[in-house]
Write a structure and sequence with these properties.
The structure is a single chain. The chain has 365 residues and is of the alpha/beta class. It folds into 3 domains: 103 residues, Response regulator (Rossmann fold), CATH 3.40.50; 85 residues; 157 residues, 2-Layer Sandwich (Heat Shock Protein 90), CATH 3.30.565. Helices cover 52% and strands 20% of the residues. It has 11 helices and 14 strands. The strands form 4 sheets. The protein has a 5-stranded parallel beta sheet, sandwiched between helices. Strand 13 and strand 14 form a beta hairpin. The structure holds calcium ion. The site of calcium ion (CA) has 4 residues, from loops.
């Protein structure tokens, strides 16, 4: 299909000369006399390229160019025709978004050469835009699909967890060994639910902000809940979760659910990486009107090349070994998202004496 060129030129001789040459070179040409006619055609037909004179009876070619740069639609290169030596006008036209100029009087070979170059550039840009668009659609479909799957995992998981809780609470299983197996299964279901919620929240945050519900939260109650959640793991690894909370931050005005899940994710990592018998420590202090919480372990620590990426979504891609990747999944990405949503920040550093320390600060209200 022939490229369509819009030619806007009020000089009848130049107009018909240029149109004839372009047509004889295989282009389809619409020739207009005024800016108004040119823009009308542009809006209705969207040509592949525009050649526009600067001085038109009803306005300037620069304004025509500027108008074509607003709105959506494929990119259309603009070449303008200008009198020799008029530098300020040329600069103004480039500023308005033009790609090139040809000085009058011009050699037709030069005009043709420039037209061909810019059509070629346009072709590659259109191709790129098309590919980007296709990729974006594909990405969205994949994202929607994975969100849907993760979302659908929630119901059966909740049911498993509920069933385990019923068996446990009604004392349907008496033998100690089975009881502890039941606890393990319950704990695993809890963590899977936590991960499912983290993934869903991160997915949601890419579309809109995480919902926040502020209430007065007892930090001590959170610590008790946390310790009981990890009790089976701690027992297995003969470690303890020790907490020291500054009385000044006994209660916080924050989102209880997000706050707890930040603590759970950080503690989960700490407990996972702690060697047998090495306690995990949680401290809470008040510093400059902010509540600062640290979760420290005596694990292998975070390698330097991971420190900048560990809170990224899919940070696992930066890990250099399976051992590194096992602690850098979606949980830390959720932590940063939740902390940021609550107006704070989070970082990881080496713990003096070995291990890592994750610290986050929230407003102390
Ligand atoms: Ca003119």
């Amino acid at each position: 299909m022939a490229y369509h060129i819009l030619l806007i030129e009020d000089d009848a001789n130049i107009r018909s000369f240029a149109a004839t040459i372009l047509q004889s070179n295989g282009f389809s040409v619409t020739a207009c006399e005024t800016a108004t006619q040119g823009l009308k055609f542009f809006n209705e037909k969207r040509p592949d390229l525009i050649i526009v004179d600067i001085g038109l009876p009803d306005g300037s070619g620069i304004d025509v160019c500027r108008v074509t740069r607003t709105g959506v639609g494929p990119f259309v290169p603009v070449i303008f025709l200008t009198a020799k030596g008029d530098l300020p006008t040329r600069l103004a036209a480039f500023e308005a978004g033009a790609q090139d100029y040809v000085q009058k009087p011009f050699a037709i070979e030069e005009l043709l050469a420039r037209v061909k170059v810019h059509l070629k550039v346009k072709q590659s840009q259109d191709e790129l835009a098309r590919r980007n668009y296709d990729l974006e659609i594909l990405h969205r479909v994949q994202q929607d699909l994975s969100d849907m799957i993760v979302h659908d995992l929630k119901a059966p998981l909740t049911s498993i967890k509920g069933t385990l809780d019923i068996i446990k609470s009604r004392g349907l299983i008496g033998e100690e060994t089975y009881k502890s197996l039941l606890s393990n299964a319950g704990e695993a279901a809890d963590f899977m639910l936590l991960m499912v919620n983290d993934i869903l929240d991160i997915g949601r945050s890419e579309q809109r902000a995480l919902p926040v519900e502020l209430s007065s939260v007892s930090v001590e109650t959170m610590m008790t809940k946390l310790k009981s959640l990890f009790a089976p793991t701690c027992q297995r690894k003969t470690i303890r979760i020790l907490s020291t909370i500054d009385p000044q931050i006994k209660t916080l005005t924050t989102d209880a659910n997000l706050f707890f899940r930040i603590l759970v994710n950080l503690t989960s990592n700490a407990v996972k990486f702690s060697p047998k018998g090495q306690d995990t420590e949680i401290t809470g202090s008040k510093i400059n009107q902010r509540a600062r919480f640290s979760v420290s372990d005596r694990g292998p620590g975070v390698p330097p090349h991971l420190k900048n990426h560990i809170f990224d979504k899919y940070a696992v891609g930066h890990a250099q070994s399976a051992a590194e990747s096992s602690g850098t999944g979606i949980g830390l990405a959720f932590c940063r998202l939740a902390v940021t949503t609550l107006g704070g920040n989070i970082l990881v550093e080496d713990r003096p004496g070995g291990g890592s320390r994750f610290t986050f600060e929230l407003e102390a209200k």
